[in-house]
Design brief:
Layout: E1 3-7, H1 15-32, E2 35-37, H2 42-48, H3 53-65, E3 69-72, H4 78-89, E4 94-95, H5 98-104
Parallel strand pairs: 1-2, 1-3, 3-4
Helix pairs in contact: 3-4
């Protein structure tokens, strides 16, 4: 399976809606046959076990490094920009839509 890191806003705007949006995309990618990595799932861990922002970024950036492709959802985000920079530095392709992803990386069902 193609492992897709979903990069999207978290702290700018409505946090709950941002988490939901990423989880909706994760579900869509699973239906299409991809293995999604939804880093905003850590929102729920953070509610139980709060950590500094940089702790979460270190984990997220490591996950980016291990994925096949990064899917960047629209919206302003310093963290997502950092994730994109990590993808670029590791020569991981960046896609900006599911249509673009499907054209470049054929899903496995």
């Amino acid at each position: 399976m193609v492992v897709v890191y979903i990069s999207s806003p978290y702290t700018i705007g409505d946090v709950a809606m941002n988490v939901r949006r990423q989880l909706e995309m994760s579900d869509r990618l699973m239906t299409l046959g991809y293995c999604p990595v939804a880093p905003l799932l850590t929102h729920f861990q953070h509610l139980c076990f709060p950590r500094p922002y940089e702790d979460w970024m270190l984990v997220d950036l490591e996950m980016v490094s291990r994925c096949d492709v990064l899917l960047r959802l629209e919206g302003e985000s310093v963290g997502a920009d950092r994730e994109m920079n990590r993808a670029i530095s590791h020569r991981i392709p960046i896609m900006y839509s599911v249509d673009e992803l499907v054209l470049r990386f054929i899903p496995v069902k």
